[in-house]
Automatic annotation (TrEMBL):
It comes from the Archaea. This is ORC1-type DNA replication protein. NCBIfam families: orc1/cdc6 family replication initiation protein. It comes from Nitrosopumilus maritimus (strain SCM1). HAMAP family: ORC1_type_DNA_replic_protein. Belongs to the CDC6/cdc18 family. GO terms for biological process: cell division; DNA replication. PANTHER family: CELL DIVISION CONTROL PROTEIN 6 HOMOLOG (PTHR10763:SF26), CELL DIVISION CONTROL PROTEIN 6-RELATED (PTHR10763). The keyword Nucleotide-binding applies. ATP binds at S73, G74, K75, S76, T77, Y218, R230. InterPro entries: AAA+_ATPase, ATPase_AAA_core, Cdc6_C, Cdc6_lid, ORC1/CDC6, Orc1/Cdc6_arc, P-loop_NTPase, WH-like_DNA-bd_sf.
Length: 439
């Protein structure tokens, strides 16, 4: 059936959206994409950052500050808030938006108001422009320091063909060059990993020092404070505290994640609004599953065909066998079975990289196991419902998997019955034997 939007359908959509929004007074306080002014706690982390950024005033230059900690611990928020409120020039980019190392420099240039460059123009040319733009900016503002914030820094290292370490080296060299011009620059990297986990070469490591700020995950009560504050500002009516506590509990199950808590609160409110009810724990439960679904759909629809095949292979094995861990080679065999015959297969090596991507995106977890004299091998386990993944990857294909599981179970049942039957017969023949022998 064709789906289309006519006037009537649009009216319904508008009605639904209005219902969803009916219980809010101001949703902007539940927007994870905008930077908030009401930050709760995090004084010591902010203080450390300010101290590093302003150390140049007393002649000490910190070329790079590494901010790290789990997701939703306030890293992006604090860095932007501090930069916006100090007398510094800064450029903030999220490297997730760039697919390649060259894409990163383009992202930075475009943030500074410059048009995109072509790959062929080369990295050195790009850095020449970058330097000019920084100097212009500092000239205009009369600030002495330029702060380059590279959020989700780890994504830079996903570019296998580009040279991430070289790129960082070039920025560090630029920092040193600016210093000779009596201008300062500080790189702030933000990531959930420690800097030493990246493949930075010695030239870089020896120049950047060890200025780090760790963002510990929030406790359940920190998360609760954050969402209590947001709830007050964004809902028309007061929300029961046990609902907020429930949101905070769920968002602290693994590690205290403020982003998750805010998303959960907003989505629960939307669901309650649609149902024209007061927001309750029931709506929070519904929000949990809706958010998980959305997240998975986003990851999967953004992935390549082979990425989806890797997801499908893991889902199928997990679903059919009701079991957790699967080796790379079993998954590769499964991938080869599912792939459409007219598509070129990727290599075993590329496939194992695909599995690592799966882990990076949070769909699976991995562990390394010794295979005795065969060295080490990786094992993968799905961290979400296989049916959800299978259905979002290939909705036309998944029903056939469900079907084959049913068949497999029916066959298992049948063979069990057969065994029972034959063992029954054996005992009765034994009975006959006994009778013949006169027992
Ligand atoms: N201390 C805090 N006070 C108020 N809101 C916070 C605090 N820490 C995080 N948040 C909010 O939680 C969400 C996630 O924070 P974010 O800085 O994006 O985390 P991270 O970058 O560490 O993943 C944002 O909406 C942010 O406004
Ligand atoms: Mg962030």
């Amino acid at each position: 059936m064709e789906h289309y939007v006519d006037k009537k359908a649009l009216e319904k959509i508008v009605g639904d959206v209005r219902a969803q929004n009916s219980i809010f007074s101001d949703k902007s306080f539940l927007d994870n994409l905008s930077v908030t002014n009401s930050i709760i706690g995090r004084e010591s982390e902010s203080k450390k950052l300010v101290k590093f950024l302003l150390s140049y005033e007393k002649g000490l230059v910190v070329p790079l500050v590494s901010i790290y900690g789990r997701s939703g611990s306030g890293k992006s928020t604090i860095v932007q808030f501090v930069c916006q409120n100090l007398d510094v020039d800064f450029c903030y980019v999220n490297l997730r938006k760039a697919k390649t190392v060259f894409g990163c420099i383009n992202l930075i240039l475009s943030e500074l108001g410059h048009e995109n460059l072509k790959n062929a123009q080369g990295m050195n040319y790009a850095f020449g422009i970058f330097e000019k733009l920084i100097l212009q900016k500092l000239e205009k503002s009369d600030n002495s320091i330029f702060v380059l914030c590279l959020d989700e820094f780890d994504t830079l290292f996903y570019d296998k063909r580009g040279k991430p370490s070289d790129f960082v080296y070039k920025i560090v060299v630029l920092v040193e060059k600016l210093r000779t011009l009596k201008r300062h620059m500080c790189i702030v990297t933000i990531s959930n990993k420690v800097l030493s986990e990246f493949n930075l070469d010695d030239r870089v490591v020896s120049r950047i020092g060890t200025s780090e700020i760790y963002f510990d995950s929030y406790s359940q009560s920190d998360v609760l404070k954050i969402i209590r504050n947001r709830a007050k500002k964004s809902f028309l009516k007061k929300i029961d505290d046990d609902v907020l506590q429930y949101c905070a509990d769920i968002s602290s199950e693994e590690h205290g994640d403020a982003r998750r808590a805010i998303d959960l609160l907003r989505t629960s409110g939307e669901i309650a609004g649609t149902e024209n009810e007061k927001i309750s724990k029931k709506h929070v439960d519904k929000a949990v599953s809706q958010l998980q679904k959305n997240q998975i759909t986003t990851i999967i629809s953004g992935g390549s065909y082979h990425f989806r095949l890797a997801c499908a292979a893991l889902s199928r094995l997990t679903y059919i066998n009701d079991e957790g861990w699967h080796s790379t080679s079993d998954l590769f065999k499964q991938y080869q079975k599912i792939i459409s015959p007219d598509t070129r297969q990727i290599s075993y090596r590329r496939f194992s990289e695909m599995l690592v991507e799966l882990v990076n995106s949070g769909i699976a977890v991995s562990k390394t196991e010794s295979k005795g004299r065969h060295g080490y091998g990786s094992q993968f386990k799905l961290s979400v419902d296989p049916e959800l993944i299978g259905n979002s990857c290939f909705p036309d294909w998944w029903p056939s998997v469900v079907e084959s599981k049913k068949k497999k179970e029916a066959a298992a049942q049948a063979s069990k019955r057969l065994k029972l039957l034959s063992s029954g017969r054996r005992s009765s023949s034994l009975g006959n034997l006994y009778r013949t022998l006169g027992f």
